[in-house]
Amino acid sequence: MTATYLPPARSRSGAATSHEVAADRPTHGTPSRRDDVLAWVGRIADLAQPDRIVWVDGGDAQHELLVREMVSTGTLLPLNPELRPDSYLARSDPGDVARVESRTFICSPTRAEAGPTNNWRDPAEMRQTLAGLFDGAMRGRTLYVVPFSMGPVDSPLARFGIEITDSPYVVASMRIMTRSGAAALARIDDGAAWVPAVHSVGAPLGPDDVDVPWPCNPEKYIVHFPAEREIWSYGSGYGGNALLGKKCFALRIASVIARDEGWLAEHMLLVRVTSPEGRRTHVAAAFPSACGKTNLAMLRPTLPGWSVETLGDDIVWMAPREGDDGVTRLHAINPEAGFFGVAPGTGWESNPTAMETLRRGVIFTNVALTDDGDVWWEGQTSQPPAHLIDWQGRDWTPDAGRPAAHPNSRFTVSAAQCPTMAADWEDPAGVPLDAILFGGRRPSTVPLVTQADSWEAGVLLGASIASERTAAAEGTVGELRRDPFAMLPFTGYAVADYLAHWLEVGRGLGTGAPAIFGVNWFRKDDGGRFLWPGFGENTRVIAWIADRVAGTVGGRSTPIGHVPNPGDLDVTGLGLSEADLDELLDVDPVAWRAELTRAGAYLEELRAPAALRRALDVAIDRL
Ligand SMILES: Nc1nc2c(ncn2[C@@H]2O[C@H](COP(=O)(O)OP(=O)(O)OP(=O)(O)O)[C@@H](O)[C@H]2O)c(=O)[nH]1
Ligand SMILES: O=C([O-])CC(=O)C(=O)O
Ligand SMILES: [Mn+2]
């Protein structure tokens, strides 16, 4: 084995540190001295038998070399530099296009700790399986060592990991999505705890084998050891399965750390809304995958005087902290550094902010290629180009009868490029949260917006999220499924304990707790047409929410919380009929009794805390 890059020299002594590496922070996973990192990399290399080991330093020179290599192997297709500078298209294997929830495992010591919503496997058995799978898995390939930080490297809230991967696409993507390289390794050297995360595409190469542009394995394993804070991923190169800082670490493992330490790791966007009077409201929102987080995070307000700044689009970590006024509030940070966003539906009409963010420096995956070397996907423009190369590399014309881009095609781009990014988005202290939104794709029953009357009622709202399935994960698109807190695929421990933890955090916050709302942009009429225009026009709902937090706008009380009176919502210029508005704000008692009965049965299945089931019974009684 030849080391192309040696591990970087230690930048500081392990003892003295200029950073405030919290000495009181519990350490997780492997002890954090460099020797332990080297020993771990050595063990994985002995097992997986790569041809080379490369330590990723995060610098430009190494990155450019990596990109050049991927272009030469066909993994990345350079786009036309005049139209889309510094940007590339990757086409995945057609069987490796989304998260694989049925192959995602939580290996806690007991099945009960994983709970009824997770695939549990016995940790010892799984370790044996993994040892077999990874034996020689990297033969003929390069093993990359990617130290990374979730959260700004110098933030006291930052958490560290090291991903070992044999995929250069993963290395390049981690560079966008996390702070990866030497700075993160220096913090680990200084004593910060780190999560070991091992990834292989599971496609070793023999001496005479020719590589393919997107190596992967039909057999996939996305494995978490919550007690050990450890991640193993095999067989897939797709974002949510392979960029291990994201769902695996920042949600599944972090949710367990958060439970133990009294904070929350959530599948949420984060924005700052400023009213015409200059009043600031910080809002986090949990919607299931491909249900509008990125779009709301980049909202371009359509009401005069309002502005929205982006802080995050997919993951929020939030911790209670007492302010100068003696009130304890949740303070929120975005642990990511980039966006891994859904391409279809993103256009100059629907999300101009995203379109501006995507002007350069993007890795696109599974979108279509235009004849002039740019990218296209359904919804980018109202009319498709006359000819394209589709996501599988085949000729495509508008009459092809199939989408040109995969429905879960994605862009990977640095958050710093987003024009609406708040100037202080990397503030290590985070922002104080005023409101939390829960939502999903609900063609009927669920009103445009509802305010929960208490923290408990809000937790019930989050626990009862149901949404039509999207292409973000394997499964039948459109099917309604329960997705508590939009965290069904991302909670690293038993969902009942997760719900209890939410209730507990709320009790600790008391009067400083954010207000909780339910939203639904996706209500349809009998003809299947969206009743609500959505996108930028969601401003009107956000304005009501911000004004409710400030106590300056009305609402009417219903058994499921407060909804706006038609006059409370500014819908001027929308051309919305009175009947449509009434339907959007309607709480139908018959439909809601059925809805809550179903939710109650589900909570029973989850063994949800009794307090939630009581809150639900109160609502049913009021109906
Ligand atoms: N009708 C309607 N569609 C929307 C709205 N907001 C987003 N969408 C569509 O929903 C799809 C997914 O939206 P995203 O914002 O990327 O979803 P996300 O929640 O960030 O998804 P993940 O990255 O998978 O977690 C896109 O096709 C959007 O065009 C809306 O307000 N109304
Ligand atoms: O993780 C991914 O692959 C993309 C994502 O945000 C999701 O599915 O929620
Ligand atoms: Mn997501």
Q: Number of helical runs?
A: 16
Share of residues in helices? 25-40%
User: Based on DSSP secondary structure assignment, what is the total number of beta strands?
Assistant: 33
Termini Cα gap = 70 Å
Low-confidence stretches: 12-27
CATH architecture of the largest domain: Alpha-Beta Complex
Largest sheet: 10 strands, mixed
Report a brief summary of the structure.
One of its GO terms (molecular function) is phosphoenolpyruvate carboxykinase (GTP) activity. With 623 residues, the chain is an alpha/beta fold.
Notes on the protein architecture:
With 623 residues, the protein is an alpha/beta fold. It folds into three domains: 27-76 and 100-262, Phosphoenolpyruvate Carboxykinase, domain 1 (3-Layer(aba) Sandwich); 265-337 and 423-622, Phosphoenolpyruvate Carboxykinase, domain 3 (Alpha-Beta Complex), CATH 3.90.228; 339-417, Phosphoenolpyruvate Carboxykinase, domain 2. 27% of the residues lie in helices and 22% in strands. The strands form seven sheets. Strands 1, 2, 5, 6, 7, 8, 9, 10, 11 and 12 form a ten-stranded mixed beta sheet that branches. Strands 16-14-15-27-31-28 form a six-stranded mixed beta sheet, sandwiched between helices. Helix 11 packs antiparallel against helix 12 and helix 15 (589-606) packs antiparallel against helix 16 (610-622). The chain starts with a strand and ends with a helix. It binds guanosine-5'-triphosphate, oxaloacetate ion and manganese (II) ion. Substrate binds at residues 99, 238-240, 289, 408-410. Residues 263-617 form the Phosphoenolpyruvate carboxykinase C-terminal P-loop domain. Belongs to the phosphoenolpyruvate carboxykinase [GTP] family.
